[in-house]
Every structure is written in structure tokens, then in C-alpha cells.
Amino acid sequence: MKLLLHTCCAPCSVYCVESLRAEGIEPVSFWYNPNIHPYQEYKARRNTLKDYAASIGLSLIVREDYGLRPFVRAVAADIDHRCTYCYAVRMAETARYAAEHGFTHISTTLLVSPYQNHEGIVAAGERFAKEYGVAFLYRDFRVGFREGQTKARALGLYMQKYCGCVFSEEDRYAKQIRRDRENSQ
User: Fold this and answer.
1) Residue 7: which domain range?
2) What does the pLDDT read at residue 167?
3) Is 178 within the bounds of a domain?
């Protein structure tokens, strides 16, 4: 098996990589996240992953694509369902790259988060794996989410505060925004 592991960030990769290696699977990490905004956040997550991958001897492929404008154009008409697009664009590019570079399987560290739409991620992974002629390796990594986050903190990895897109950052502050609005009236 030659696995290309879409990687959203270093902290989410900790448990995923450890558990795959425990199974005898050596993944190749694939950074492709045009959904992450603003640019300083994108850069912090990418650079943390580069450093972490080097520290554990993990092969990493970085596909640079800071895509604020294309992302916003794609989700603007239906911001509440933006995650469907987000999963699809990342899984499609992962499967395309895998097929073109001799990988047999794809998966994603997104499967570790209990905050993501797990079924939506799996559906996108399976859809694009099939479309590009590779297999989708499913693992429910959520069981190790807390363990992975604890290890990431102990390693001093940059720990982001929101999923990635500018709208998820807005969601992060929703209660504060509501309180501020109420207090100003």
C-alpha cells in the first residue's frame, strides 16, 4: 500500500500518523488546504506541519495554493454548507495527485476531528478516490483525538483555534459578537 494522507495540520496528524505506523503503514503527508485563511494562519499551519514532519521523519508533499478568492467565490452563495465544498476540493486534489504519482490509497487527517462532518468527509474521500482510480483508506481516528491534541501541546506545536476558513473563525467568535451587539444597543 502506498498511502497519500491529506493533512490539514500538524496537531491533527499526530494521532493519525502514529496509528497508521502502528499498523505498518507509512503514509506520505500531503498539504493542500486552500480553505485556510487568512494567509498568516495558512502559513503558520503549513510551517508547523513542515517542522513536525521533519522531526518525525514523515515524507511531506506541499501543494501550495492559498486560495482565498476562489474559496469565497465557491461558497459565497451557501456559506452554511461550505464544508461540503471544502471536503470535496481537498479530497479531489488528493486523489488526483495520488493517481498521477503512483499512490494506491488516500486518506485524510480530517477524520480525527469530532467537530467535522465525519460522514461528509468519508463521502468525499470515497467519491474522489473512485473517480481517480485509487482506494480510500477509512479509519475512524476520532478515538485518538484527545490523545493526539495532548501530544501536540506537549510538543509545542502551533494549535489553531478554528477549522480554517474565515467563516469558521467568525463562528468561533459568534457568542462574543452577539454579546457585543446586545451590549451596544
Assistant:
1) 3-160
2) 86
3) no
As given in the structure block, the three cell numbers for residue 133 are 482510480
Q: What cell was used for 63?
A: 501543494
- Strands of the 105-108 sheet, one edge to the other: 60-62, 28-31, 3-6, 105-108, 135-136
Instruction: Decide the pairing of beta strands 60-62 and 105-108.
Output: unpaired
Residues 26/60, Cβ–Cβ less than 8 Å? no
Peptide bond preceding 38: is omega within 30 degrees of 0, i.e. cis? yes
How does DSSP classify residue 165?
A: S
Q: Average the pLDDT over 23-42 and give the result.
A: 96
How far apart (Å, rounded) are the C-alpha atoms in residues 89 and 71? 9
- At which residue does the C-alpha cell 503512483 appear? 102
Where residue 23 sits, what CATH number does that domain have? Answer: 3.40.50.620
Give dist(CA 111, CA 97) in Å, integer.
Answer: 19
What's the structural domain count of the chain? 1
Does the residue 28 lie in any domain? yes
Distance CA 46, CA 40 (A): 10
pLDDT band with cut points at 50, 70 and 90 for residue 182: confident
Tens-digit pLDDT profile for residues 4-31? 999 999 999 999 999 999 999 999 999 9
